[in-house]
Amino acid sequence: MTAKIIDGQALANTIIKELGPQILELKAAGRAPHLVAVQVGENAASRVYVRNQEKCCQEAGVSYTLLELPAETTTEALTARIEQLNADPKVTGIILQMPLPQGLNAREMQWRIAPLKDVEGMNPANMGYVVYGRPRLAPCTAMAVFELVKFSGTEIKGAEVCLVGHSEIVGKPATMLLLDAFGTTTTCHIATRDVKSHTKLADILIVAVGKAGLIKADMIKPGATVIDVGINRVNVLDAAGQPVLDDKGKPKKKTVGDVEFEAACQVAGAITPVPGGVGQVTTAILLRNTVAAARLQAQA
Hints:
By secondary structure, this protein is an alpha/beta fold. It folds into two domains: 30-116, Leucine Dehydrogenase, chain A, domain 1 (Rossmann fold, 3-Layer(aba) Sandwich), CATH 3.40.50.10860; 140-279, NAD(P)-binding Rossmann-like Domain (Rossmann fold, 3-Layer(aba) Sandwich), CATH 3.40.50. The protein has helices at residues 8-28, 44-60, 75-87, 106-111, 124-131, 140-151, 171-180, 195-199, 261-264, 278-299, and strands spanning 4-5, 34-40, 63-69, 93-96, 160-164, 184-188, 204-207, 225-228, 232-235, 253-256, 270-271.
């Protein structure tokens, strides 16, 4: 068996294309979507996300502003900037880039973003809508997982669904989205005694831990749909298992997921690649949330 590769870029392109008429309508009504990303301090990984967000917004015709604050920004100063953005009618979406420098409570800061401008879906009010089966601005990565499962053609209703990882960003909200679609969900976490006993039963397996190679081929049910959320940077190895060096003498790196991809492809029915899977769709969902937030604010 060779798994079908679920093309995240193709789904992302479809989502963005469908937003076109809504964006034009909002602009015509003087409610143009405007996303502001708040970056506190310097972080290389975050820079990659920022570039992807900006590119996606530019292609869709959505205004994008990067607000850069120094690493020594205090809780009080960051709170004040968030409140300024909350009050600015020209700003329709706010995203707080992670990670934040030490001393800043990420969860507390995210909660300070107004619910109707919370395009990451992390405010308790937006989480509540997910729990009640009426997602308004749902967490982007969790919704990307849900959309990828549907895009794969996999039937959710009645399926055994296993999520490995129970974060607020992915595991918990994705569980609720799939549960609401009548999947029979199991969520594994650090205290789960035998993860394999759960993953082997899953028709739909979602992995969001951040540990390269966590899921082996023998942990996957034959024919299962596998959504790999993990993003890990690991060394490129040669045939002898030694790190390959670049022209500066440093180990070359590559990006991999939480699932052993090549081996999993021989067992799974469908699988997302890393990169090329969840990440692209997450950015598209962020854009969709930005447009939805602008519409909600126009109706408020």
